[in-house]
Amino acid sequence: MRYNNILSEESNGITTIIINRPKKLNALNRDTIEELHEAFDAANKDKSTKVIIVTGSGEKAFVAGADISEFADYDVSEGKKLAAKGQELLFDFVENLSTPVIAAVNGFALGGGLELAMSCHFRVASDNAKMGLPEVSLGVIPGYGGTQRLPQLVGKGRAMEMIMTAGMIDANQALNYGLVNYVTTQDQLLTLCEKIATKISRNSSVAIGAAISAINANFKDGVNGFDIEIQGFGDCFGTEDFEEGTTAFLEKRKADFPGR
After folding, report:
1. How many Cβ atoms from other residues are within 10 Å of residue 39's Cβ?
2. Tens digit of pLDDT for each residue in 53-82?
């Protein structure tokens, strides 16, 4: 599929999605959000894709925020619809994909950019990365899940400070906060992400999808994560991956998971 604002390519079981609006520092507009949804959906349905990596084009920005010019004149109703549609179409959608998603944060990840990175299953940053949620400096609050995911990742107090000051933190501070898993040089960023993705791809994609669902369940109101874990654990016993994994272990060989 051809896109106007993003690039998507698959190689060796890894689909890399690149937000490609360098003149706008890869800012998210409506069209880009819709294209990202389509690309993530296609990669998730592609049986050859075991891991998805998302990053930004160029050397300055992952995503420098939302395209403010699109909603500067919105009223209350339009603002609510903007947040609700964006969360459903992209941010919640990415978080709940059964295919693991790694955010390769290669520069500024601000506002909607940090919210996109936080919706991914984990994050790796280049040492020039800067992250923040500056929305209150515009008279609004984060609307794509930032007030919910940031406290989950860094704790309530740090999230309150980051959001209320509208300030940025650097990559090493993000690592210290637990917002990112690793920091590396920009030229090694995708290499490191691909190395991690390759390790992931050797394991059962069915089991990984179940693990994602169980982990996410712990952060949902009214959902007992332990119950979801029990259900997912039991369901795994009925899969070909479980049969192959246990057989390979007993035969002292590496498993060749069929992904079913």
Report:
1. 21
2. 999 999 999 999 988 888 888 999 999 999
Say what the alpha-carbon torsion angle 167, 146, 153, 116 is, to the nearest 10 degrees: -100
Q: What is the DSSP letter of 218?
A: T
Report pLDDT for 173. 98
- What amino acid is encoded at 104 in this protein? A
Q: Which two tokens stand for residue 63?
A: 């995503």
So what's the pLDDT on residue 221?
84
d(CA 162, CA 19): 25
Active site residue 243: no
**Digit-coded pLDDT (tens) for 100-123:** 999 999 999 999 999 999 999 999
**What string of DSSP letters covers 144-198?**
SSHHHHHHHHH-HHHHHHHHHHT-EEEHHHHHHHTS-SEEE-GGGHHHHHHHHHH
Say what the pTM is: 0.95
DSSP class of 96: T
The CATH number of the structural domain formed by 6-201 is 3.90.226.10
Write down the residue that tokens 């880009």 correspond to: 32
Sign of CA dihedral 16, 99, 153, 84: positive
Q: Which of 115, 161, 243, 244 is catalytic?
A: 115
| Catalytic residue (one of 135, 161, 194, 243) | 135
9 flagged as catalytic: no
CA 33/CA 30 separation, integer angstroms: 5
- Structure confidence at residue 71 (pLDDT): 84
Query: Any idea where the domains of the chain sit in the sequence?
Result: 6-201, 205-250
